[in-house]
Amino acid sequence: MISNKKGFEVLYDGRISKSLAFTKDEREHLGLRGLLPYSVVGQNIQVKRVMEGLRRKDSNIERYIMLSALQDRNEKLYYRIISEYIEETMPIVYTPTVGEACIEFSHIFRRAKGFYITPDDKGEILKILDNWPEKDIRVIVITDGQRILGLGDLGANGMGIPIGKLALYTACAGIQPSQCLPVMFDVGTNNKEIREDILYLGYPKERLEGKEYFELVDEFVMAVQEKYPNALIQFEDFLTPNAYALLNIYKEKVLCFNDDIQGTAAVALAGLYASTRITKILFSELRIMFLGAGSAATGIADLLVFALVKEGLSKQEALERLWFIDINGLVESSRNDLMPHNLPYAHHHKPLNFIESIKTIKPHVLIGATGAFGAFTKEVIEVMGNINERPVIFALSNPTSKAECTAEQAYAWSHGKAVFASGSPFEMVKFNNKEYRPGQGNNAYIFPGMGLGVIIANASIIPDELFLTAAKTLSEMVSDENIEDGALYPRLNEIRVLSLEIAFAVAKKAYELGIARNKKPKDLKQTISDYMYNPIY
Q1: Of 50, 51, 23, which is closest to residue 36 (Cα–Cα)?
Q2: Helical H runs in 251-377?
Q3: Among 165, 326, 364, 410, which residue's CB has the most CB atoms within a 10 Å radius?
Q4: Where would I find the H helices in 59-121?
Q5: What percent helix, strand, coil does the chain show, rounded to 5?
Q6: Burial classification of residue 303, based on how many CB atoms lie within 10 Å of its CB (0-12 exposed, 13-18 middle, 19 or more buried)
C-alpha cells in the first residue's frame, strides 16, 4: 500500500483505510502504532462483523445509515459487502429503502457526498467543479429531484438517488469509485412541506423552470465536456417533460442516457424476450399494453418499436402492437390532452376504460409504470388470465409500496398462470404446492454494464442499438433453471458476471458502429475485466 498520509489521516480516509486489517508492518510504516487495538483482523472477519451488525438493526433505514457510514470510513469493505451480499444489500442501498432515505435525507444527513449545483452558481459551474478533488471522472449521475421514484418532488433530498446509483455502478460493474460523481441539480422544490422543513438542506425556493432551467443544465453539460471529456452523464428521476426534452437535446451530442427512459426500457425488453420462452409466443407477435404513459412506459415502448422493426416489422406495424392506458383511459387519436411522446401511440380507436381496453385489445403482456399501488386489481389480473394461457404481468413501479400488484396477488389471482416481474424485490411465493421466484426487472441489470462498456470503448454517444444489444445479452443469460422457477431474470448474485458480459457486448457493438473513441484492444473482454474495481485487500 502506497500513501503519503500518516496516522489518523490514513484511518479517516475511507479510500485507503483498512481499519483493523492493517498489518504490523503497515502500522509501523504508516504511523498507526498505538492508534489501533492489538489484533490484526482480516477483511473476511470484518465482513462477518459488519453483516452481524447489519442484521441486528431493527429497520432498513437504520441499515442504510450504517452502510452509508461504512462507505465513508472503509470504501473497499463497503463495496465488498455490497458485491458479495447483493441480494440482501441492494434493497437497502437502493430501491426500496433509498426512497425512504430520500424522504428523510435532510434528517439523517451525516456527511456531504456528491456535488450540488444551484441557481446561485450560474456562470460559475466550470469554476466550482475545480473543487471536486478527483479529476478523472467517467460516470456522472445527475437528478433534479423532481420525480424521485414514485414519490414525487423531493428537491435536494433526491441526492440519495445519484449516490445509490453510483454505488451500484461500482458494486455491480466495478466502475472505480474515484471515477464516479453524484450530482444534485438543486433548483428548488414545489413541495411546500419539504421546502418549509427547518431541517431541509436544499435551495429553499420554488422550482426554477423554463428557459433559465435549461440554460443552467446546458452550462453543466458543457462544463462536463471541458472538465471531464470522457464522462458518461446519466440523467435520473427527472419529470417526464424535462426528461424527454433533455434526452432529445443531448443524446446525439454527448455521451449520455436517461435511465428511467432507456435503462428501464432495456431491462423490460430483456424480460419480454425471456417471457417468450414460457408463453411460446413469438416476440414479433406480442400485443403489449401499458398502464401509465410517462417517461418509463413510453421509453420502453420506443425501444420495443426499435426491436420489433429489427425483427422485420414496419414501424407502423410495430407501433400498432403497443397500446397505452393513462388516467383518462385509452390513449387514442381523438384525445387532445396528450403529450408529444404519447402521440405515436395514439391509435384510431373508440375511447375505452382500462378493463374494456384489455377485453377488446386482448394484450399478451400488461406493463405497469404508474407509481400507483394496487392499480392491477383482482379483476385486471383475472381478465388477463381469461384471455391468455400465460399472461405476462410486469408491475414495474418503485419502490415496493408503489407496485401495481404484489407477486403473491399476481400468482393467486391468475391461479398460478402469471409470468410475473416487478421493479422492486418480492420474496419467493408458494402457490398450489409450487414455488415461484418473482423476477425483479431491476435497472441494475443494465446500467452498470452499459456504463462499463461505453467507458472502455470511450463511446461518443449511446444509440438505441446499444440498449438493444444490452437487452439481448441479458435475456440470453437467463438460464433454463431461472425459467423453470418462473423468473425472467438471472439471480442478482450473478450481476458482476452479467455486467461484464453486457459491457463486452456493448463495447464490441460501439466499435462496430464506429462510435468508439479508444483504440480497440486485442483482448477486449480481458481489458474490461482488468479495469474492474477489486474491493478485496
Answers
A1: 23
A2: 264-279, 295-310, 315-319, 354-361
A3: 410
A4: 60-73, 75-84, 86-93, 97-103
A5: 50, 10, 40
A6: buried
Q: Are strands 434-436 and 419-422 parallel, antiparallel or unpaired?
A: unpaired
The pLDDT tens digits for 67-123 are 999 999 999 999 999 999 999 999 999 988 999 999 999 999 999 999 999 999 999
DSSP state, residue 171: H
Contact 422, 388 (CB under 8 A): no
* For the chain, domain boundaries: 1-41, 262-442
State the catalytic residues: 94, 165
Predicted pLDDT at 3:
64
- The pLDDT, as a whole number, for residue 150 is 83
Say yes or no: domain 1-41 is CATH 1.20.1370.30.
Answer: yes
Question: Would you give the end-to-end CA distance of the chain in angstroms?
Answer: 10
- Model pLDDT for residues 232-273, shown as the tens digit of each residue: 999 999 999 999 999 999 999 999 999 999 999 999 999 999
| CATH for the stretch 262-442 | 3.40.50.720
- Edge-to-edge strands of the sheet including 139-143? 115-117, 180-185, 139-143, 232-235, 256-258
Are 42 and 18 in contact, with CB atoms under 8 Å apart?
no
Bond prior to 340 in cis (omega within 30° of 0): no
Residues 6+ apart with CB under 8 A from 131: none
Is residue 161 within 8 Å of residue 167, measured between CB atoms?
A: no
Instruction: State CA 291 to chain mean position distance.
Output: 20
CA dist., res. 449 & res. 175, Å (int)? 9
390-431 confidence digits (pLDDT tens)? 999 999 998 888 999 999 999 999 999 999 999 988 999 999
Report residue 47's pLDDT band, with 50, 70 and 90 as the boundaries: very high
Q: Which regions of 49-90 does DSSP assign to beta strands (E)?
A: none
Of the candidates 431, 382, 422, 380, which has an alpha carbon nearest to the alpha carbon of residue 402?
A: 422
**H or E element at residue 435:** strand 434-436
What is the rounded distance in angstroms from the CA atom of residue 248 to the CA atom of residue 526? 34
Residues 6 or more apart whose CB falls under 8 angstroms from that of 15 comprise 75, 177, 178
Scored b (16 or more CB within 10 A) or e, 122-131 reads eeebeeebee
Task: Dig out the grid coordinates for 166 from the structure.
Answer: 453510483
